[in-house]
Amino acid sequence: xxxxxxxxxxxxxxxxxxxxxxxxxxxxxxxxxxxxxxxxxxxxxxxxxxxxxxxxxxxxxxxxxxxxxxxxxxxxxxxxxxxxxxxxxxxxxxxxxxxxxxxxxxxxxxxxxxxxxxxxxxxxxxxxxxxxxxxxxxxxxxxxxxxxxxxxxxxxxxxxxxxxxxxxxxxxxxxxxxxxxxxxxxxxxxxxxxxxxxxxxxxxxxxxxxxxxxxxxxxxxxxxxxxxxxxxxxxxxxxxxxxxxxxxxxxxxxxxxxxxxxxxxxxxxxxxxxxxxxxxxxxxxxxxxxxxxxxxxxxxxxxxxxxxxxxxxxxxxxxxxxxxxxxxxxxxxxxxxxxxxxxxxxxxxxxxxxxxxxxxxxxxxxxxxxxxxxxxxxxxxxxxxxxxxxxxxxxxxxxxxxxxxxxxxxxxxxxxxxxxxxxxxxxxxxxxxxxxxxxxxxxxxxxxxxxxxxxxxxxxxxxxxxxxxxxxx
Length: 473
Hints:
Number of domains: 1
Distance between the termini: 51 Å
Largest sheet: 5 strands, mixed
Strand content: 5-15%
CATH architecture: Orthogonal Bundle
Strand order of the largest sheet: 1-4-5-10-7
């Protein structure tokens, strides 16, 4: 992987090693970014192991890096104005990369996350009302119940030295998304859905060497094809559950399936068929459970890393909640808990790497973009850019206090533009409710020698888990 640098008003400079201390400040864990260009084989190995490790150190200083891996020309964009063009001003000119779509299409079809153009637009218009502020508030009791259940599970582990909070948070957020998506517990085997999706992502999401060299879509990726077979039973069961719900009388339940069954594109009146409903429900399950779980696990790691911040957040949560679990009405009164989530999403964004394909020639941050070039937005690197953030590797929730001098396109935990995550407000509400409830009841301490390491395959996960000692407050 060879690259050249383009400079503009962001400035430039050689990248330095990210250490665990900077200016005397102890820093939370960070990915090891390469100093030197990599060849094709090294790029493939790094991308398959950890996509973050293909982000050069120079990306933390430059507005754009351009290079080539085999025959494929690429650009890593860190300039907010250029990112705005890719995600907003010329969004149709920069569709999601074929590699991303090829990984996800077998699981979630041409749903909101994958579809492009008019097919994406009508689905977005139809689904948007389901995620209105009113509906998010109405669904919050599901989050409150899940937070209570998580506290009960953690309290029951008394006597264990440490708990892997990744496992706990995945269980918690899957409870939420399962109830929110399909409230009928008999409608589908939720555990089977979770297992099938996890198995597919683990087998199919790793980059193929064929992706790295830009091989066309019709060239088979064997591992990905084999993984598709894991999904067939789950997809059939989802279709049956949707058909049964369509044939049943609507009760007093409120879930996403009911909201989407009654949804229609306000411009055309088009409604989703069974296949489109299934694809979008699976999209919400995939995007809405692991990403929030990972954010919560990282947030707990950071609270254990900085006991002073944890103490302040505990005091805030205990003062507001007075022993009960958080509700929708409490969220506005938990500003520090919310800032912890915001800072967690900066340091460890679940979607830490976006990839697009240029459909036409263009210019971004002074660099010429050719038709067919890959345009990458390394969100993990953008959130730690030396010219955009003060103390970029430090955990500082207070940076989100008061009015922010942060360009909208330098902070992208949920993407941005018309394709910004449709469930962003739902995810923030869920994270604040669960984290506040946990911090009001437990104290979390790091386990020496068990720090996680940031690894991204499809999402940014803490390799090795987040192992914390837990005690009742």
